[in-house]
Design brief:
Length: 692
């Protein structure tokens, strides 16, 4: 049985690892040719403000006194630029959000192996394509765009990681630090000829990462005074930076500004999932190449936001977060990031129809390049007669669309050209997804075969050793026929050869070959299967159907609980009824009553909110006190016993009670310290590690 246990662990480790090969492989490809718009760009420089953790509603709404929470940004929306909502994707974390904004692609799922903190595969970005980039902010964000980039055109200025303390007295200093250092930088540029000439070049980027709002949101919640005041600090800081830059460049009208966020935050101060409060972020842009505000009488959005924010008369243009990267590239005339899947939002551009059409054509070519590289890679790795191409975008169709789009541009039919380019982009994106998931079905079938085989084998061993359903079967395994063994060996050789000629990764051999010995072991127990089936046939059909229905219903309840938590309540209520359909209620009344009581008590839990909106220290302390009370009951019962285990068990329970007391102390004092904005006490950290 020990060998079986070890084998089971190994099999399950393989199944767990298969998740990463099937669902978490990097979608990024390399080897594309850079694409850029062959026309002069409207802007020489771009300033990108990213307010980490800022929700759209928190920025656009009015405060308690009926005044705009961010008056400068509100003024931009109404008099100088364009605005909308940027829709992010899961996981709504800082690194994935910034990658989507600056590199144009959504989270590389292979980064789950790095805890979403670092990308294991290299990628291109707007910062990499720029002539020079200067960035200020958090070291966690700035370094990932400078890491592994050749040349010396990226300059980062960041504070110490220790400054990012949720419990600090005033975390708005994270944002004022950025604003102050940007001012110092431009002041120094006036007295440094080399730096002055660099900041006056074309195709340059200034990136300001503002972490204070996110930190205040985690520490105090987005509904807190600290979070809302931090938005005002950011608004004032942006106003000063914009004014300073316009003065520095002599109001030349060649600076484009973008203000947005990487993700939002829930009311209880978390992010990472797909709640609207996490995925809806603000997007405001103005300056060179950007359309001025457009007053409208009606808008296409059916949500209530426009009325709440009193912006129903100013045209709102929503975008996807990855669309920001091609927009920024188009504004300053650099190549679109090679791995970008963003679609250029041309409605934001204030330029000629020719420029808009050419930019859209460049966008289509850039995404099509990725499709071609991905298709070539997959085609080279698969035997020709097994390869199934993406039929919606054949080579002839690609050429036909590109030829037509180019012809429309020459004929000045710019709207038709833009429409064709968008069609090509959507097809290329579908094709990218098709080739990225090309092996998913094949690997999925292999893993399912292995999992079903292992489940069957384990079930057969349990039936054989621990039931009376197979009385006629010998407990010893009879020597199987040579034909069965030879057949499975032949299948294994064939599968291995098939994978070898396709140059598959070694993990594919594991997933595809593992089911073979497992199913061989299952078929060796053929007599157990036969006897088990015969035993089942002796049961009344109605009883079999009833059991099958109950098992199926139970599984469905577990599956539905992922989407509707209250289905667990129904399952627990059914559990509470179990003693009524057995003899237990008459044989053990006290146990039956306690079973019913605790099952019903537990049934209340799935009906409660998933996460509370604010911490309830009294609930936590009450739970700890209840555990201590129950522990005292156990200790009392142990003292009444007189066997030789009492000392060891009593000592163990006393230590457990001590750990509960220490935990309660740590939680209470930490909560009190954070309320006073004194941070996390070192003593509490030490106690927590000792308790663990």
């Amino acid at each position: 049985m020990l060998l079986l246990f070890i084998l089971g662990l190994l099999v399950h480790f393989v199944f767990f690892g298969s998740i990463f090969d099937i669902y978490f492989t990097s979608p990024l490809v390399h080897g594309m040719t850079p694409q850029f718009t062959p026309l002069p760009p409207p802007a020489k420089r771009l300033v990108l403000f990213v307010a980490d953790g800022l929700r759209a509603d928190a920025l656009y709404e009015f405060d308690e006194n009926g005044n705009p929470r961010a008056p400068f940004i509100r003024n931009i929306i109404m008099h100088e630029g364009s605005w909308g909502i940027s829709h992010t994707r899961v996981p709504t974390e800082s690194r994935p959000g910034h990658v989507a904004l600056i590199a144009g692609f959504y989270e590389d799922v292979s980064a789950v192996a790095k805890g979403w903190k670092e990308n294991p595969v290299g990628f291109d970005s707007l910062i990499n394509e720029s002539k020079y980039t200067w960035s200020w902010g958090s070291p966690d964000i700035l370094t990932m765009f400078a890491k592994g980039v050749g040349g010396d055109h990226i300059y980062t200025y960041s504070y110490d990681a220790e400054s990012e303390d949720f419990g600090a007295h005033d975390v708005t200093k994270l944002d004022t630090w950025v604003f102050d250092h940007v001012k110092e930088f431009f002041h120094a540029a006036r007295n440094n000829q080399s730096l002055f000439s660099k900041v006056n070049e074309e195709k340059i980027v200034f990136f300001l990462h503002l972490l204070g709002i996110d930190t205040n949101g985690h520490a105090h919640r987005p509904t807190s005074r600290e979070y809302k005041d931090n938005i005002k600090v950011v608004d004032d800081g942006i106003k000063e930076i914009v004014s300073m830059l316009e003065h520095f460049y002599g109001n030349d009208g060649k600076t484009a500004f973008i203000f947005t966020s990487d993700h939002g935050m829930t009311d209880w101060g978390f992010h990472g999932a797909g709640h609207p409060s996490e995925t809806l972020t603000p997007f405001v842009t103005w300056g060179a190449g950007i359309k001025y505000p457009q007053k409208v009488s009606a808008q296409k959005f059916d949500d209530a936001f426009l009325k709440e924010w009193k912006l129903e008369n100013w045209k709102r243009q929503d975008i996807h977060q990855a669309d920001v990267a091609p927009l920024m590239a188009s504004l300053i005339g650099v190549p679109f990031p090679l791995n970008s899947v963003g679609i250029l939002p041309i409605d934001y551009l204030n330029n000629t129809d020719l420029f808009r059409a050419e930019s859209m054509f460049t966008n289509a070519m850039q995404i099509l390049e990725q499709f071609k590289v991905k298709m070539t890679q997959k085609k080279e790795a698969i035997l020709p007669f097994f390869f199934t191409p993406f039929k919606l975008l054949s080579e002839s169709k690609q050429l036909n669309i590109l030829r037509k789009a180019r012809s429309y541009i020459k004929q000045r039919k710019y709207d038709e050209a833009v429409s064709l380019c968008k069609e090509l982009i959507h097809l290329a994106l579908k094709g990218l997804s098709y080739y990225h998931t090309y092996d998913r079905f094949f690997l999925g079938v292999s893993v399912v075969l292995g999992f079903v085989g292992w489940t069957s084998y384990a079930s057969l061993l349990i039936i054989k050793s621990h039931s009376n359903l197979t009385r006629g079967v010998s407990k010893e395994v009879k020597k199987p026929s040579h034909l069965l063994a030879c057949s499975f060996i032949a299948i294994g050789v064939f599968v291995a050869f098939f994978l070898l000629i396709q140059d598959c990764p070694w993990t594919y051999y594991v997933y595809c070959l593992l089911p073979i010995p497992i199913w061989y072991a299952v078929l060796r127990e053929f007599r157990v299967i036969q006897d088990f089936v015969l035993s089942l046939l002796t049961f009344p059909l109605s009883q079999l159907v009833a059991y099958l229905f109950i098992f199926t219903l139970g599984i469905e309840v577990l599956v539905l609980s992922f989407f509707y938590r209250y289905t667990l309540t129904a399952g627990l209520v059914a559990f509470a009824c179990w003693p009524f359909i057995t003899q237990l209620r008459t044989r053990a009344k006290s146990i039956s009553l306690s079973w019913i009581f605790f099952s019903l008590l537990l049934a209340v839990f799935p009906l409660m909110p998933v996460v509370g909106r604010k911490p309830d220290i009294f609930l936590v302390m009450g739970a700890g006190s209840l555990v201590l009370l129950l522990s005292l009951c156990v200790v009392t019962s142990l003292l009444k016993r007189k066997d030789h285990f009492i000392n060891e068990e009593l000592l163990l329970h006393l230590f457990q009670m001590l750990s509960i007391v220490l935990s309660m102390y740590v939680v209470y004092t930490t909560h009190d310290s954070l309320l006073k904005k004194q941070g996390l006490p070192l003593f509490n950290q030490i106690i927590s590690w000792i308790t663990l």
